[in-house]
Amino acid sequence: MANEHNSTVARDGVQLEMRGDVAVVRLCRPAKRNALSDGLILAIRDTFQNLPANTRAAVIHGEGDHFCAGLDLSELQERDAAAGVHHSRMWHHALDAVEQGAVPVVAALHGAVVGGGLELASACHIRVADETTFYALPEGTRGIFVGGGGAVRVPKLIGAARMTDMMLTGRVYNAVDGERVGLAQYLVPTGTALDKALELATRIATNAPMTNFALMHALPRIAEQPADHGLFTEALMASIAQSAPEAKERVRAFLEGKAAKVQKG
Questions:
Q1: 117 and 230, same structural domain?
Q2: Does residue 265 sit within a domain?
Q3: How many CA atoms lie less than 13 Å away from 125 in the CB half-sphere?
């Protein structure tokens, strides 16, 4: 990956910086603990829908002491049922742009990953947490319900029973227990989550694009299909991926002994 950096001015609390072919997306509301306003949610949507053409992977992180402390409470307002549905669906479309976009996304987590912040993190494909990270879903104790996709995404990470416990009791997971139950795949020393996320994204960016596409878009669907359907989808996706010219070159290099061998971790 090239070392050149190309930053854009933060818009509605989001800044995009290209580090070679990795897009680094920063939440820039540190005074608000990067709380999610509607403007910030829409800026996240627009950023991930309009990544530069050369982007092969992305990292999202938060400026200041926290990744994201959830919904900006100053924006809480009374809504009738119809308005509430439309507001929730707006969040869904925005976070779909992260999860179902063009490239894999690695979240660098630290400090609060709470409420909507956990919903955002769960829309990413890999989560790296440092030792300051803590997770919570306080909506249940505030008389409301998750509305940004958490009811779908969080149980896929930790199971419905653990999410129910978090919402019924206000349970907070620390960094160690969060990694243990599946809220993050990596746990790193304080202050190093972004470095680790960039390392992973740089590695991901070297994969064949169709393989990354399959892992983002086909694998989650296969996981929800009946076994017979999943096996058929797998066969189709495998044949498409291996037919790509870049995949053929990589297989040829492996067969000729030119590819790096898997090493013990």
A1: no
A2: no
A3: 24
Residue 119 annotated among the catalytic residues of the structure = yes
Question: Last residue of some domain: 185, 204, 223?
Answer: 204
Catalytic position from the list 119, 131, 199, 246: 119
| Residue whose token pair is 């001015």 | 9
Helices 160-169, 150-158: inter-axial angle, 10-degree rounding: 120
Same domain, 248 and 134: no
Q: Which of 4, 99, 131, 139 is catalytic?
A: 139
Catalytic annotation on 139?
yes
pTM exceeds cut of 0.70:
yes
Domain contains 264: no
Domain boundary (161, 189, 204) is at 204
Residue appearing with tokens 């790296």: 128
Q: What range does the domain containing 232 cover?
A: 209-255
Which tokens sit at 135?
A: 């997770």
- Sign of the C-alpha dihedral computed for residues 164, 168, 171 and 175 taken in this order: positive
* Per-residue confidence in pLDDT tens, the chain, 265 aa: 344 566 665 677 999 999 999 999 999 999 999 999 999 999 999 999 999 999 999 999 999 999 999 988 777 777 889 998 999 999 999 999 999 999 999 999 999 999 999 999 999 999 999 999 999 999 988 888 999 999 999 999 999 999 999 999 999 999 999 999 999 999 999 999 999 999 999 999 999 999 999 999 999 999 999 999 999 999 999 999 988 777 567 655 555 566 566 677 6
Q: Is residue 187 part of a domain?
A: yes
**140 touches 172 (CB < 8 A):** no
